[in-house]
Amino acid sequence: QVVRVIYNNTKKLPQDRESVFWFNVLQVPPTNIGSDGGQNKMLVMLRSRIKLFYRPDGLGKPDNLAKKLQIKTVNKGSGKSGIVIVNPQPWFASLSNLNVKVNGASYNLDADMIAPFSSQTWWLPGKRSLKSFSGTVTVTLVNDLGARISESYDVPHH
User: Fold this and answer.
1) Which among 158, 141, 154 is positioned nearest to 71, based on CA atoms?
2) Between the chain's N and C termini, which has fewer beta carbons within 10 Å?
3) Domains plus CATH for the chain?
4) End-to-end Cα spacing for the chain
5) What residues does 100 pair with on adjacent strands?
6) 111: how many CB neighbours lie within 10 A of its CB?
7) How far apart are CA 112 and CA 141, in angstroms?
8) Which residue intervals define the domain Pili assembly chaperone C-terminal in the entry (predicted)?
9) Nearest of 3, 8, 19 to residue 91 by alpha carbon
10) What does the pLDDT look like over 102-136, one tens digit per residue?
11) What is the DSSP letter of 103?
């Protein structure tokens, strides 16, 4: 089966950054009720969720995307601390893994996409203060070809 996606130009998309859309597919197998002969059978349905990126012509390629991310720390008054990742670029940063090693402890945090020209905060579990620490943040991104690119950053402290 073939799916054809066409941009119909009814909605103007930003030309200074990527846009992302989600394409959801549910594959339902055909069933033939009369031919089962009284035997058990199992039907498997697959659900796929595909990211579709629109990249304007003049935007170029996201070379060294991981190297240009900026890492900051943030502390809440309640004793919680987190890591802020700033994406100052016009491309989405699709994270596949995010690991924070701080004061001898290691945290694998839920990876997510970071939109162009924006930031996202990940809170460390429990009450962890990052006021005096040493550590690294390792970010693993998925590039345009599906390869995983990792970059480690020293965690800055205030």
Assistant:
1) 154
2) N
3) 66-154 (2.60.40.10)
4) 55
5) 107, 137
6) 17
7) 10
8) 85-149
9) 19
10) 878 899 999 999 999 999 999 988 766 666 566 89
11) T
